[in-house]
Amino acid sequence: MKKILLLALIGVSIISCKEEKPKPVKDYLVLSGKIENFKKRDVTLNGFNFNKKIKFNKKTGTFLDTLKISKEGYYTLIANKKPIKLYLSDTVNTKIIFDYKNNTSIKFEGGNANINNYFVQKGKKFSEILINANNLFSLEEGDFLEKMNQYKEALITLSISNNLPTNFLKKEVKNINYEYLRNLSNYQDFYATLTENEEFAVSKDFPNPLNGFNYSSDEDYVNSYAYRKMLETQLDLLAKEKNEEGKCYYLTYLETTHAEVNSSIAKNDLLYKNAKNGITFTPHLKEFHDKFIAYSTNEKHKKEISKTYNILKTTAKGQPAPKFSNFENYNGGTTSLDDLLNKGNYLYIDVWATWCAYCKREIPLLKNLEEEYHGKKLTFVSISVDDKKQHEKWKQTIIDREMTGIQLFSGKKQNDLEWAQKFLIKGLPKFIIIAPDGTIVSPNAPAPSQGEKLTNIFDELGI
Fold first, then answer.
1. Taking the C-alpha atoms of 380, 385, 387 and 392 in order, what is their torsion angle to the nearest 10 degrees?
2. What share of the chain is helix, strand, coil (3-state, %, to 5)?
3. Exposed / middle / buried, residue 78 (Cβ in 10 Å: 0-12, 13-18, 19+)
4. Would you say residue 205 has pLDDT above 50?
5. What is the pLDDT of residues 157-185, one digit of tens each?
6. DSSP assignment of 69-133, as one string?
7. What confidence tens digit (pLDDT) does each residue in 87-101 have?
8. CA 21, chain centre distance (Å)
9. What's the whole-model pTM score?
10. Which tens digit of pLDDT belongs to each residue from 13-30?
11. Where is the Thioredoxin domain (predicted)?
12. Ramachandran area for residue 270 (φ above 0: left; ψ -120 to 50: alpha; else beta)
């Protein structure tokens, strides 16, 4: 009897253990969809610091992906050039069904279907009331304000009447207000551009969109694209106002962001966005790096910017210039950096590409500059970072634009060219000054269009 009782107790214990085994916690969502009349290979999902391409099956006209998102919130699904607003939660599956050629066909399934259907209705309100951006910003001031107030009231009424979840409704009402304020802040510049009236200014009675604007709201920064853009624009304007003659804008922007923004998510994100490219352009490399490290509290960002800094140190002022070899010379043969050094001349190097509109705008000014410094201790070198497929286009561009100086063809794009990557070239055109002995004078020299900023450097060098 005791044996039977003991075995029974053991059996109960085993069953109890099995029953108490925790089930796996779902930490993902499934995003799926069916798109008719869509012929591309993928769709893209964008959100705050989130970007992912999702494969589209052209045979079945469907897509499906399992996603792990850190925060629920506003996202945009982009099918080719068509953006579709979505609200995603970390464990709530969402399905979207629509015809790519029919804007009125969008349907949603899943836990957030009510919110996502609201976004479709919101888009229709824009078309009904504002028509399009060009129409809106071409209106006279009074008509513009009347339309904007009508649109804002319509959206708030729509959001309240849709029985939306309370936590989302709270975010959305704030977002509607930021969208309204952003349009107000854009009105003066957009109206001036569309009406070709550069001297236009809003009246003194025009509402100030920045009245009471909060520069330090992490919640709004994450949830509202309009708030992010307003904050970025205002910091840009403040930095330009504070920037002293001869000082680096990117450095001033870092300092301005640190002074004006107190919330950690917004501040770290803004500092990082500026530093990713800014550190490759600033002439004050060490100061820029040190201030970024002091201001940011995001260890991942700091590690990445420090890695970039350590690469850029090797091409900083006073360092030996990286060598390039056997670039095709338009006048025949090949040319290496060593062929151009130790001849008593400084090198003013223009890194450009045939597809780059900004590069082409500098060409006439570059030609004028070369004419002005003809016979002086300065050699003008243009290096094309077009790939081999653009070889004939490179030669034709030189002919069409009557380009002068030493014209070299690398045969590789900047991201594939080892020499260019040592300078971490992020944008074109890029100008570099190298001394006769091969040391770097400036890895970020002013462009010809910057006038005295450039010629003052030449004067200091005794050219």
1. -30
2. 50, 20, 30
3. middle
4. yes
5. 999 999 999 999 999 999 999 999 999 99
6. -SS-EEEEEEETTEEEEEEE-TT--EEEEEETTEEEEEEEEETTHHHHHHHHHHHHHIIIII--H
7. 999 999 999 999 999
8. 47
9. 0.86
10. 443 444 555 666 678 999
11. 315-463
12. alpha
Domains and CATH numbers, the chain: 29-111 (2.60.40), 129-212 (no CATH), 228-315 (no CATH), 327-460 (3.40.30.10)
Name the E strands within 268-338: 327-329, 334-335
CA pair distance 189, 184, nearest whole angstrom: 10
141 vs 125, 186, 199, CA distance in Å? 21, 12, 15
**Contact (CB, 8 A) for 348 and 433:** yes
6: pLDDT confidence band, cut at 50, 70 and 90? very low
Q: What is the DSSP letter of 439?
A: B
CA distance 266 to 222: 8
Task: For residue 62, report the phi and psi dihedrals to the nearest 5 degrees.
Answer: -130, 165
Alpha-carbon distance 249 to 131, whole Å?
38
Which own/partner contact pairs does 238-242 have at CB distance under 8 Å and 24+ positions apart?
A: none
d(CA 21, CA 262): 45
Residue located via tokens 């009424």? 157
Residues in the chain: 463
Tell which residue, 461, 409, 413, has the closest CA to residue 440.
461
